[in-house]
Amino acid sequence: MATMYEMIMDLPLFKGVSKEQVSSFLEKTNINFVNFAPGEKIVSKGDEVTMVKFVISGKVCVIHSLRGCGINVEEICAHGKVLGADRLYGMSTGYSCDVIASEKTSIMEFRKDQYVRLINSDHIYLLNFFNYLSRRAQRPVEAVEDYSGGDLKSRLSVLLSVLTDPDSISISVRSSVEDLADYASKDVGSVREWLDKLSAEGVAEYQDGELRIKSRSAFLS
Are the beta carbons of 109 and 52 closer than 8 angstroms? Predict the structure, then answer.
């Protein structure tokens, strides 16, 4: 079993740091470890981001809700998922999604002012933060360029590319067939045919109002 030091060193904002640096971080930072039971909400969409949160153990369901169209994009994430780091500053400082524990989950969190001090303590933390923010800033541009068609697959590919992480355990889109048709300005019959084609190709499966993506990379290819 990985030690606490190893788990922290494996987090995306701590990549490349030494055990000595982790030890210094633990010594100087007021860290909270919070446990959540299955189904318990960890963050709510719109809440002010005052802490940087990391999934240390367990799994979480990240729910991205689209306003006014009855579509939710959900992803299951595990160890290493970062919550709130991209919303610490800027025009929008509220969480962009709801996050619920899918199973017993442990979250490590600390205040953003402590994170700023950590960034200033060593360039490796600064580079990790820059890389994290840059990748998330680049994704929307790449998505718009790569999926420019007006069909439903292109519309959903933009959503998956922008909203979900490549290392998510699973991804699903919750929506009725009618809402999917409205979203892409298509008729219901053609959407049903497309969903059947996805299932036949083994890329995704639609059942009971949920489109389960079997492979994010295959769907986006």
Answer: yes
Q: Which of 96, 93, 181, 184 is nearest to 140 (CA)?
A: 96
Within a 10 A sphere around the Cβ of 58, how many other Cβ atoms? 19
From CA 32, how far away is CA 40, in angstroms rounded? 17
pLDDT tens-digit map of 109-161: 999 999 999 999 999 999 999 999 999 999 999 999 999 888 899 999 999 99
CB distance 109 to 56 below 8 Å: no
Give dist(CA 81, CA 93) in Å, integer. 18
- Tokens describing residue 26: 């633990």
Which residues, other chains included, contact 52 with Cβ-Cβ below 8 Å and sequence gap of 6+? Answer: 13, 82, 83, 84, 85, 88, 109, 110, 111, 112, 115
The answer to whether residues 56 and 125 touch, using CB atoms and an 8 Å cutoff, is no
Q: pTM for this one?
A: 0.92
DSSP-derived secondary structure for 106-126: EEEEEEHHHHHHHHHH-HHHH
Amino acid occupying residue 32 = N
Strands 51-57 and 41-43: unpaired
Q: Quickly tell me which residue has 């929307």 as its tokens.
A: 140
Cα 158 from Cα 140, distance rounded (Å): 8
Decide if 205 contacts 194 (C-beta within 8 A): no
